[in-house]
Design goal:
By secondary structure, the protein is mostly beta strands. It has strands at 3-12, 22-25, 28-37, 43-47, 52-55, 61-71. It has a six-stranded antiparallel β-sheet, with no helix packed on it. It is globular.
Length: 74
């Protein structure tokens, strides 16, 4: 079977957020463009829209992440 991509909802923190993650903020889906490590384990997240968000190690967010390797069309 062919490999396909699928978006899954997962919970992330400052240590596990990745480029390309899609974060829902204020009813808008924002895609992560850049991540910068800050002191104390914080990260500055820059979105494709140009907006930024600073998250601490205790911040948890629900994100949509595109994963590869799903079998079949679904």
């Amino acid at each position: 079977m062919a490999r396909s991509e699928k978006q899954v909802a997962i919970e992330v923190d400052a240590a596990s957020v990745l480029l390309g993650d899609e974060i829902q903020i204020g009813g808008r889906a924002l895609s992560v463009l850049d991540l910068v490590h800050l002191s104390g384990g914080c990260k500055r997240v820059t979105f494709t829209s140009g907006e930024t968000l600073i998250i601490t190690p205790r911040t948890t967010l629900a994100v949509l992440r595109t994963v590869k390797g799903w079998d079949g069309p679904c």
